Amino acid sequence: MREANEKKKGRVAENVEMSVSIQPLGDRALVIDWGGGIAVDTHQRIRAFCTWLNKRQRPEVIEIIPAYTTVTVIYDPMKIIGMQGSYRLSYQLDQDIAHARLSPYQHMKKWMEELLISMEHMDVGESRVVDIPVCYGGEYGPDLELVAAHAGLSVEEVIDLHRNQDYLVHMVGFAPGFPYLGGLSERLEVPRRSTPRASIAPGSVGIGGKQTGVYPISTPGGWNLIGRTPRRLFRPESLTPSLLQMGDIVRFRPITVEQYAEWTEEEL
Amino acid sequence: MSLTIMKPGLLTTVQDLGRDGYQQQGVIVSGAMDRYALRMANLLTGNTQGMAALEVTMWGPAIQFEQASLVAICGAPFEPRINGRIVPLWRPVWVRAGEILEFGACSSGARAYLAVAGGVDVPLVLGSRSTYLRAQIGGHEGRALLAGDVLPIGEPSSLAASYMANIEPELTASPFTAASWFIGELNRPAYHEEPLVRFVRGREYHQFTEASKEAFSSHRFRVSSQSDRMGYRLEGPEIQMDNRVELLSSAVVFGTVQVPPQGSPIILMADRQTVGGYPRIAQVASVDLPILAQVRPGDWIRFDEITLEEAEQMYTLAEQLMRRLECAIGLYLKQGGL
User: Fold this and answer.
1) What is the SS3 assignment for A30?
2) What class is the A129-262 domain?
3) d(CA B160, CA B176)
4) A76 touching B, CB under 8 A?
5) Which UniProt keywords apply (chain B) (predicted)?
């Protein structure tokens, strides 16, 4: 993730590649796909695009959902078809994009293409660094020794490798506030447990295959648990319920059992 | 103003049109499974379409009304009763204070919606009153309703209040009185044990084998017992890809049909996760989601391919019809007659 740091203030300067594809996802959503695999470059483009789109709040956009290489836009077709008191089936569109007789999908696709072209040189801004205190091992990390044995490392080496790394939040999903993190050391890759746990405590930090992450709410799960954070990753009372946002950098910091017990959530 | 849950039923939850705008933070949409029935029940009680109501599943609850209420029940025919008499569906019903509405089981379909004038007034969480069971937020204490729960009811709209004031003096002698006007059968989805569900091609449609694509549109699929508000697992011919490629997770929506490696499709429903990593063979047309919401485990589904343009036009027509019904209901409520 060193690359991510260097690009923290990165600009998306390249021309809009025409390899970007736009496809429908049913009759109320479309997917913009930058293609390829998980890459910091693609991530920066997606961040830039979301920022660009969010700045242009339009009534037909219900929400946008960024992922590793895609942005999905959910829209309201009825807002696009200007009803204006008539019940005609012809598609009446906004004045500012006067592409007459486009279907709702065609209208959205056209607009997305225009946005992609106009967002060149978009500044995505600085990444926020979020500190996640973790009490490693013991009661909170029942699989830490198993991970160490599998990796052929000592418990201390596992903790050092896990903490001395910047992790990029590629996307949030699966569960509310659950970050898909990039940057786990290859030496810490450990297969998921063959039998998933029926319930995992909120705040549990785990490793599953090439991924590491934190469980925000109690769910079943198959990752190896190496520690637990007292920080709440999902805060439904807040307008930004997910502590971590796409584009954030996560740093894990070891704390003791006592520090875990004394942790008080900071005021927001 | 409140109502009290006397018996909870199989799964009774508070739902509205869902929690939009937070999927990029991993918060699922939730909301009513059958949005048509929810919207209609709300309109019939003078509410706006998206107010919170009770979603009743398979085996319904018993509910006591603290005060005289204007209610409407839309969706599956549960044969709800007050004082032993059947309460008709798809129309406004005035209920006397203290009466108990008992749902029982439904003869077809799976879900019904009970709207009350004023709406179920539980606190808003992230812009919605829908119950998100897994995260334990929204609705009533983030969970399915239990016996003894007391739910606050909001202030009825001026339309509902004037309608009630108009009809009430004549009614206090009987436990409930139903309006003589109602949503006709032509404007109600026909619940079926083997519905035909229209779909447009999913993003990975072309990567499935010819035989699988053919089987998907020509065979019927059984809705497995492992089906719930999150999704329906289907049993039927195995659906396979030409070359199985690992996909990166990306967004899924209501009605996305994804196929895990073992070849049994899953239709994602109201409580779906925000993202998924399985290939998507199809996307159910929005206009048919209310029909899909009413199938039950053991029912069969057939899929029929349509073009995106057709799906868009059907959706548009359905929404325009909804607006006309909204106007008509408003006029009837304003006139004040039973």
Assistant:
1) strand
2) mainly beta
3) 16
4) no
5) ATP-binding, Hydrolase, Nucleotide-binding
